[in-house]
Amino acid sequence: MNAMSPQENLLDAFSEEKFEEVRALMEELHPSEIADLLESLPPKDRENLWDLIEPTLGGDVLTEVQDPVRSALLETMQPQEVADVTKDLESDDAADILQDLPEDVIATVLASMDALNRERLASILSYAEDSAGGLMNVDVVPVRADVTLDVVSRYLRQLGEIPDQTDNLMVVDRENHYLGVLPLADILTKKADTSVGENMIEESGIHADTAKHDVARIFEQRDWFSAGVVDDDNRLLGRITIDDVIDVIQEEAEQTVRSMAGLGEDDMFAPVLTTAKRRTIWLGINLMTALLASWVIGRFSDTIEQLVALAVLMPIVASMGGIAGSQTLTIAIRGIALGQISKTNSRILMNKEVAVGVLNGIIWATVVAVVASLWFEDKSLGAIIGLAMIINLIIAALAGALIPLTLKRFGVDPAIAGGVLLTTITDVVGFMIFLGLATFFLIS
To answer: Is 3 exposed, middle or buried (0-12, 13-18, 19+ CB in 10 A)?
Structure first.
């Protein structure tokens, strides 16, 4: 028999109202594990468990929970409580929490903080949440290029501690213009009488208005663990660290998965009406596309009545087109997300995907044509479905490349609407081509 995990023990103790045991068990868990437990509970139980969390731990837990759950918990808290749980957090984590509050509550929370925390948070909150400025941490250790490594070493010992996730010190000039970074390892391994400028790595900072998905791409391209954030005058504002970038990547991956299913950011235990409202629009859109496909089939009802085999084979044409189009759609959406597709190479991508569609169409159309011919003992029927599949796979590949590019041009997220449009095209075109060819060559 497998031993229960600490999380399972905690939930059992919580269900039996052994609250002292719950508090003791929470001391053994990481804040992210407690956050997972909160997300797994219905709202009432979630609030009761939240009340058992020590204030010193509450801020770390709030930074780990999903936005809808965090917002619900913050609604139960007074401004002073929010100030208490965020006062010991890093500035970027505290800003993430405050950004979920109404403007008037944010002002109240800031007013209840000491001057230093208020100033640090206000500088971050002045930038959009999804920008580099909104992600940055203002806790940095700047050093000047004209001082020696020995001076830097003595300065660090005087400080006594450095911010978490510090791998480099930020190098600036007398006017705080960002020049580059000094790896911490260099302070230990390079000659103490050499200057910071001799050992630093020159690099440009990330502008504060840079979108967070672009920040993630820059980190991936340059293998950074941290980077300076600068303003229009290249003055150092703060830094972004790899833990923040990982959060961005995870958030965008989850958002993409939800979007492709027509789901927004939602709490698993959100109210029924709230969840239904968010999902119903996509069910309605899907119904309209299904009705369109059914209308196309209905236009060929006489043909289907005369040749029942068409009804059996129709789903094959639409399904193969849908899969082929989805493959291209996924490649295109990924390319757009990574900034790899532009006006200069979009035509090359479309030509390549059409060529793939032709090749796969010929291969699988031949297989299906042979199977259909043997199954229904009709070579003409096999030829018709083979030709329909080739045409539909080519159109599917072209649509899979064109749809996300077109949606992006109109400012629509391809991950949200791309799948619905592609399915409509492959179904409608597939049915129309297959039934149209059958009507023309086999019935008339």
So the answer is: exposed
- pLDDT by residue (tens digit) across 327-381? 888 888 878 776 778 777 888 888 888 898 889 889 999 999 999 999 999 999 9
Locate the DSSP E strands across 87-192: 142-144, 168-172, 178-183
Find how far residue 249's CA is from the centre of its chain.
5
Domain map (residue ranges) of the chain: 6-130, 142-241, 272-443
Please tell me the distance from the alpha carbon of residue 331 to that of residue 397, in angstroms, as a whole number. 11
Q: Which of 109, 200, 216 is nearest to 152 (CA)?
A: 200
Specify the CATH number for 142-241; select among 3.40.190.10, 2.10.25.10, 3.10.580.10, 3.90.850.10: 3.10.580.10
Q: How far apart are the first and last CA of the chain?
A: 70
The fold adopted by the segment(s) 6-130 is MgtE N-terminal fold (1.25.60)
Helix (H, G, I), strand (E, B) or coil at 334: helix
Distances (CA, A) of 269 to 70, 97, 101, 278, 281: 13, 20, 20, 14, 20
Topology of the domain comprising 272-443: Tetracycline Repressor; domain 2 (1.10.357)
Nearest to 132 by CA among 202, 249, 214: 214
- Stated pTM of the model: 0.67
Q: Round to whole Å and give the CA distance between 84 and 96.
A: 15
